[in-house]
Write a structure and sequence with these properties.
The protein has 235 residues and is mainly alpha-helical. It has helices at residues 2-8, 23-26, 29-38, 59-68, 74-83, 98-109, 116-129, 141-144, 152-164, 168-175, 191-195, 202-214, 219-233, and strands spanning 14-18, 42-46, 88-91.
Length: 235
């Protein structure tokens, strides 16, 4: 992102980023938001409710938020989170009903900053939602000794994202890597596991993400299916 902005920022009016209270840390949205803002560009926010995932919290998590303020829905909390960003010029929201439209309009009509307690509650829920996978700290000790030079912390981050919310974007990110740097290139030598301060089973992660991705349709396959469907729907 920085390399792109260094070269093209003067030609850009805004930058669209995926921002919500989970991706604030999971996808490093905070750093991306600060970076774009430092170039004097406005930010357009996408996925504030992460494709609806954050509207579907479990009962315990929903109760945590209701105790703080029963008037807000789970989705409302997502919008209140992104409202706090002074440089957020536009928030994109996918809506499928008039109720959702009216709810979004109401939450933006009367903006109330989050309290410290509310911030803490959202951060707690975010940690719960992303605690399924290995908690890599990106120390990069594993990278130095990897004979395949795989960017292991990056793969670990994608793995956590995959466990939390499978998305075609993960396939696209892995497809953009060189063949010999993808998870499937891992030879399971175990050097990474031996030096990992968190004692994470990195070879297993490389194998598991490869296996999981093999059962997901690729971006190319989805495009092909949509093209065929469009052709078949023509009179």
């Amino acid at each position: 992102l920085k390399a792109f902005l260094d070269k093209y920022a003067e030609y850009v009016e805004f930058c669209q980023l995926q921002i919500n209270y989970v991706d604030w840390t999971l996808q490093k949205s905070r750093e991306k938001y600060d970076l774009v803002s430092s170039y004097g560009l406005k930010v357009w926010i996408m996925e504030p409710v992460r494709g609806g995932r954050l509207a579907k919290l479990n009962e315990e998590q929903s109760d945590q938020l209701k105790k703080l303020n029963p008037e807000y829905s789970n989705a409302d909390w997502c919008f209140r989170f992104v409202q706090e960003m002074d440089n957020a010029y536009m928030t994109l929201s996918g809506m499928t009903s008039m109720d959702q439209l009216e709810s979004n309009l109401n939450i933006y009509k009367d903006r109330k900053p989050l309290t410290e307690e509310e911030h803490a509650a959202l951060e707690k829920i975010a940690k719960e939602l992303t605690s399924l996978g290995p908690q890599c700290t990106a120390c990069r000790y594993c990278v130095e000794g990897c004979p395949k030079h795989i960017d292991i912390p990056r793969i670990m981050n994608l793995y956590n994202d995959l466990l939390f919310s499978p998305s075609i974007s993960i396939d696209m990110k892995i497809a953009a890597m060189d063949d010999d740097r993808r998870p499937a290139a891992c030879i399971k030598c175990g050097k990474c596991k031996n030096v990992c301060p968190q004692k994470l089973d990195i070879p297993f992660v490389m194998s598991d993400i490869t296996e999981r991705m093999s059962h997901m349709k690729s971006w190319a396959e989805l495009c092909k299916e949509r093209l065929e469907a469009a052709k078949n729907s023509r009179p």
